[in-house]
Design goal:
By secondary structure, the chain is an alpha/beta fold. It has helices at residues 29-33, 59-74, 87-100, 123-135, 219-226, 249-257, 283-289, 299-311, 319-323, and strands at residues 8-12, 19-20, 25-26, 44-48, 80-84, 107-110, 144-148, 151-153, 158-160, 169-171, 176-178, 185-187, 209-211, 234-238, 262-266, 292-293. Helices cover 28% and strands 18% of the residues.
């Protein structure tokens, strides 16, 4: 019988939640285990992935984490997976994972802005709640989920707004809550209908996000247009409805002519891309030129959806519907 059979695997992929001060070293399996209550410990197994700054991750590395989690479910019969990571990229990693997680087994992400041995540590509470959620039948078939602040969320419903205080996230409509920090998980609602893709090739690396700002010149977009053959895609993060400076238009047109997909987003966290006014650089003009409107998607989510689409061999004509979710 596999050591992992019917167990929740706590996969440490970095983050302060499994880090200790003063040397910022990673907790051992035994140290992580000590944060799990006695009644949950027999149902938990601990594993490690590469312990390194999340700023070094590539999307292919993120795919490797998901592949490792899948192999634990398929090959070693684990019941569910809890992944720890750095809080400043957790929502993106969970969102990406949800796009390619095709199993019913729960996949729970958690993190903390404080190290495990700091006075403000949330390691015990968040690991306890994550394992509790992973064991709940109500999280089965729900894709990747995030466990934070005494609740469970869909990755699409979290926006990080700070990097230094406990109230560091803007969160919407929890999927479930905990009766108390170490209490039962209560399911409230299901996430929206999921569509996932199977990766058939490595994920493209050259998918930059270019953000428009007041008074932006065309230096960056001109440089990208000159090197369009090295691009896999481009995410435009525009003003308002998705507008960009008029000086960008010739360069965007050049990139589109090379059949490089351009996805248009709003730079605002709650923004929505829509065709309104008609003028040089407007969202209307960009959409007419062939840019794909991302609707409510943030630039970061749009980039991840485009990456998964390209790595799964999605035909170009299916991209608009997929990008909009």
């Amino acid at each position: 019988m596999s050591e992992l059979q019917d167990k929740v695997v706590v996969l440490a992929a970095g983050g302060r939640i499994v880090q200790k001060l003063p040397d910022q070293s990673e907790l051992s399996d035994e140290e992580i285990s000590a944060f799990i209550p006695d009644f949950l410990r027999p149902m938990s197994v601990f594993r490690k992935w590469s312990f390194q700054p999340v700023s070094n991750y590539t999307l292919n590395m993120c795919a490797d984490i998901v592949h490792m989690a899948k192999s634990m479910i398929h090959d070693e019969k684990a019941k569910a997976i809890v992944i720890t990571c750095a809080v400043h990229a957790m929502a993106e990693l969970a969102y990406f994972s949800d796009l390619i997680w095709d199993l019913n087994s729960p996949l729970i992400f958690t993190a903390s802005i404080f190290s495990s041995n700091s006075p403000n540590s949330e390691t015990r509470t968040r690991l306890t709640q994550s394992v509790t959620a992973a064991l709940s039948q109500s999280t089965s078939g729900k894709g990747a989920l995030i466990c934070l602040n005494d609740a469970l969320y869909s990755p699409a419903d979290i926006i990080r707004i700070s990097n230094y205080r406990r109230a560091d996230l803007q969160m919407f409509s929890p999927l479930g809550i905990y009766t108390q920090p170490g209490g039962d998980y209560i399911h409230l609602r299901n996430p929206r209908t999921r569509n996932f893709r199977t990766l058939t090739s490595p994920i493209p690396r050259n998918l930059p996000i270019l953000t428009a700002a007041l008074g932006s010149d065309d230096l960056v977009i001109r440089t990208l247009a000159e090197k369009a053959d090295t691009l896999d895609g481009l995410i435009l993060s525009g003003l308002g409805d998705g507008d960009v400076p008029s000086s960008w238009i010739p360069h965007i047109r050049k990139i589109i002519k090379t059949n490089i997909p351009i996805v248009l987003t709003s730079r605002y966290p709650g923004g929505y891309v829509q065709a309104m006014e008609q003028y040089e650089g407007s969202a209307s003009q960009l959409i007419d030129m062939g840019a794909i409107p991302a609707g409510l998607l943030s630039p970061f989510h749009a980039r991840l959806r485009l990456a998964v689409a390209l790595a799964s061999g999605m035909p170009a004509e299916e991209l608009p519907n997929w990008i909009r979710g």
